[in-house]
Amino acid sequence: MWGAATLVGEEELTDGGKATSEVTMRGSLIILSIWLVACPSVDPAGSQDRDLGPGDTWRQDRAPGTDLPGEEDPQADAGQQEPDAPFDLPSDPSPVDLPVQDVVTQDPDAADPDQQMDAADAADLPSDVAADTPPDTGEEIGPPPEGANLNPGWIGGACSLPTDCTNSAPICLTDGFPEGMCSQACSQSGEVWICPDTDYGPTTMNTISRCIDTGTSLARCVSQCDFTKSPTGCRTGYICVLRQRYGQPNTIFPVCLPWEPQGWPDEPPRPFDIGESCMLPSDCSHLYCMDLPNGYCVMTMCDWARCPSGSECFSFEASDLTACLKSCTQDGQCRTQESYVCDADDTCWPDYTRPAWDSSVSAADCAAVWAAGLSPCDATPDDYIVVNKSARNLALCNQGSAVSSWEVGLGFTPAGDKRREGDGRTPEGVFYVARLVPTSSYYKAFLLSYPEIEDAERAYALGEISSTERTNIINAQNGCTEPPQTTALGGLVEIHGGGGTSDWTAGCIAISDGGIDALWAVIGLKETIVVLP
Predict the structure, then answer these.
(1) Looking at the 3D structure of the chain, how many domains does it have?
(2) pTM of the predicted protein model
């Protein structure tokens, strides 16, 4: 079984627990706006452990306290017209060598925040072709989740009349919108469609507003999900779903729309393509391309939403992701030509064989790092760590010689360097110990100094992080301090305990508890950790 993983990697979990069907779990959600503590997992109420069979990874039902990859710092852009970086979703298929196509974004700062488009203008926008197939019903999941009283009098807030809304040119949507919803037509500047954010801020219950494609002729402003202000990210009666910015199909945001029918009331049903191949989020009807071989279309955030018929909801513990996976009863229903099989959970998933541990690389790895003088922050680099991902080996080194070695577990997408939050990859490069974590849920932990300057430069050039985030990462690296851990690049990557006999993390490096004790006696802050492919 491939990385349908024990996902315990980039954030700290409080409990172990294996994959279970989402229908057995109905706790609280967490997904999107605030980032967790190192390698976290939570044990949701009512969840049941399920072994995924002969492979080495596992999944678990969604639990409270996690986030979706790519969300902005809710305070970083308070009061601005659209934050610098949109909600960016992992899409590059891994581990196969396919060309990487990143989400295309446009610069919203160029838009005129005072320019508004009235409803008559919006009505002239082109209509989508309505689908004539009935929507998938999936499984019933009970009453709507209970959220917080978000956006009172603002976009996304409750209303009975337009006068209940304080935003400019207000519209009160009532047909199919529980308790009504304040909105307005989007404004346009050049090719960018925008919505006002002037009332957004950390001291209010207001959230960022986004201009989305409603699936009809209208471009409307809605509220973005915010899990720092509501346990569900939304008001009661609404759920967090992914939608495209109007006119920009590769710019995708998590927004609050009615829980029933899980979207805009008259939005055409989305075709069933769960489990199909993809390269970009926009290749998938539910706008999420999972980072698996040749991509894997899923519907995310199924904590309270029902999965389409023919799929089932699972959570990937520390990767902050819940997703509907394609159901199956035999391999032939899966992409067998791409090595997907019907696994022990009756879902289509990659068939993955983990490489054997090879400790024989320790001597050469230690010698090579010593000869290259790789020591970014340690003034006396006698002791250091070298992780060889392909050999699943961690070596404790001293002045070019191997002292000890341990088998390691990696992220649920083991091959390739880490690119963004939630991709399941263990980063490669030259790091230093940025923090010691003596009370990790996985015994003890060393926090790696990820992301590096090179990561920040690449992500900034692609519009995935803001200029402030880029500067903060560079300053931390130059000062040998802890870099920001909550950007779209991901973070909280550790070497921790819990055992290294399987690739069960969401990006961390796991070894035995005894191995952590041996490292703890020798390795301290700012000492070097080199991670090789």
Answers:
(1) 2
(2) 0.58
